[in-house]
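Quick entry between incubations.
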Amino acid sequence: MPDIRNPQQIRSIEKKNKIIKAGFELFCEKGYYATTTTQICRRAGISTGALYSYFRDKKEIFIAAFKDFLDGDYYNTLLESLNNFEEPFNIDMFLDKCVNVLTELYLTSYKALIELGNMQIEDQHIMKSFGRFEDKFMRAVVEALTAHDIKTYNLAEKYYLVFILLETLAQEKTFTHDTIDYDKLKNETFSIIKSYLLIPNRDCT
Amino acid sequence: MPDIRNPQQIRSIEKKNKIIKAGFELFCEKGYYATTTTQICRRAGISTGALYSYFRDKKEIFIAAFKDFLDGDYYNTLLESLNNFEEPFNIDMFLDKCVNVLTELYLTSYKALIELGNMQIEDQHIMKSFGRFEDKFMRAVVEALTAHDIKTYNLAEKYYLVFILLETLAQEKTFTHDTIDYDKLKNETFSIIKSYLLIPNRDCT
Amino acid sequence: MPDIRNPQQIRSIEKKNKIIKAGFELFCEKGYYATTTTQICRRAGISTGALYSYFRDKKEIFIAAFKDFLDGDYYNTLLESLNNFEEPFNIDMFLDKCVNVLTELYLTSYKALIELGNMQIEDQHIMKSFGRFEDKFMRAVVEALTAHDIKTYNLAEKYYLVFILLETLAQEKTFTHDTIDYDKLKNETFSIIKSYLLIPNRDCT
Amino acid sequence: MPDIRNPQQIRSIEKKNKIIKAGFELFCEKGYYATTTTQICRRAGISTGALYSYFRDKKEIFIAAFKDFLDGDYYNTLLESLNNFEEPFNIDMFLDKCVNVLTELYLTSYKALIELGNMQIEDQHIMKSFGRFEDKFMRAVVEALTAHDIKTYNLAEKYYLVFILLETLAQEKTFTHDTIDYDKLKNETFSIIKSYLLIPNRDCT
DNA sequence: GATGAATGAGTTTTCATTCAT
DNA sequence: AATGAATGAAAACTCATTCAT
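Done. Structure below.
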């Protein structure tokens, strides 16, 4: 039984990365089931046999591809961009940036992210492999917000809701509903978030 | 092209329903791709041939199963229950009910609902077949809220956000995150929604 | 085991004929393999079960359909028309008529006739069931020609060749070759046949 | 869409040829519809998957088998043999050779040739793929005859008729009619062809 | 190590034939 | 007798995985 290589050598690592990249692209384009190993090999420029010396099976590629995505430059740079703002901190601009980041994410990777969600439900193994992609995004948002406006209690839960609201907005921007007007939704969302996060400032006396 | 029976007789309708039921259950349990027609036949207690005399192909079963689900007693009774409250209207109890309804939905059908979302993205034909399942839910919520508390502008967008927040809560109840405490999330969510929907009542003077 | 009915009653005979008619039409339109029993039943206006009380299997319908065609009014009237000419006998007009008859035959029944040929090769049983459809046509031609011009020896073989030549012409009329000019082919064919059949008249002295 | 291998390597070409050979044999033996892909695989000694990596579907095998047959050694050698005669040119011997060539053709491939004809009618794609098998045969006959005896006008049509007559003879040799005596038919056929082609020599003065 | 041809179990689908009503 | 729903064996085809070279 051939062992799965854990590549140390540069050439090997490069090859493994090519597989991961190709796999991720295809999963994003067509989803998990509609992507065949042959397609992955072709796009990665490797042979079928080679694939199976780096990964035990197709599912492992999927997992690796997501690990890689969540830890990779693309996603991290995107997240870091959230924290690059010029003082003074303007919450509207910040929220706008959040929506843009999420929107870019959905435009490139929606199908794959959904598939990931699916797989997590179907497959305990994948579920354990990593939290939902939003975890990292949330942490970035929290970090940025914490630096400027503080809600001391229920932090995780508060920001999770903020994240959900932003995500909703980004989804709407990406996949429009007939009955929803994006600009109005944006106004409403921002107004909720601001009133919510900044309640101290709106205290009635 | 083989004929698809459009059953008039009770026996036939029952059989078609058995297929739909079996299909829906399996799609919920394992997702669309992991469900085979053979499994559907076995669970429905029919032969392969019979299945194909009621449905042109597997995808049609999926569509029918969802049509049936969204129009069926189970979902509708669930939705109607939202409007059965004793006066005076208590918004906390109402929101609780909403979360419970969504939670029950996710517990029984999450995988299938996700798969539906997927398919809608992949497949324009399915997209047209019915709006997203939330549309109906939202309408029910709007109806109930409208009767008691009025937000005159951006109604659709406002209630959409309320829906999203409730859905988030229900999802959390169903599929727990490590970092989130459900009760706290519930408090926060309800407080947002209430402060949001009831702002007029809370006007500072 | 249900016996195959040999229908005596008028109603039964009518039904059997409807099956035969429907089957023949469909075999002509789409060929044997592309025709399903269900289609035959639908066009005949009967139930699947009924079909199998008149015919043991699909092949029997095919055989019956051809028996019926070869013995039926359509074909026989067509053949008789060969003999309805006004005196004096004009061989060109007669040959023209022959070609027209064959052409009509091909236009309506080519696919079925070919399928018959096929089946005769594949299936000894069908082979025995009837000679090739041309046998009857040939006899009609022979009859007409014999009445006016006599070649005493090798009659069968001579007329068979004449038949083949006429058939060729009709086929060309029905399904054109790129390289062949129909009018020229007709001239050549007629000239062969005439010089062949009428050689006595052309004796050199 | 799975890739179809276009084999360059000898081993691959050999395998593709094994499939074509097995397919052609089976099509000749039982016809297109009665031949299953499984049978082709078994006879070719390959797996189902392999078959589908060389051909997109069953029909493609059929087409390839015929392309191969018409362009292949067997048929070409047969045709070339028509032109290998010792001078002086003897038309009887030449015609005999023609009949023998056609007879051998029918004995080995009749069912497949018929099926090809069928398919050409049913399927425009196949129709375009190659002219009827007779085209090539005719060209060979024309070539041989042209070298020795000349009919200057309506050449194509004349030789087409000659071809038809020879084919008839070969068919009779292969699949006997009850009412026809082969030797007599041969005499008659040859006499027609000769008198037809050589009419100049028989001019009455 | 690498290759990519080969495998074959597994899938969807069809349709002649049967049989309960 | 008639119906037409049901059957299920058999067909075409796919694709993750293996293994000879």
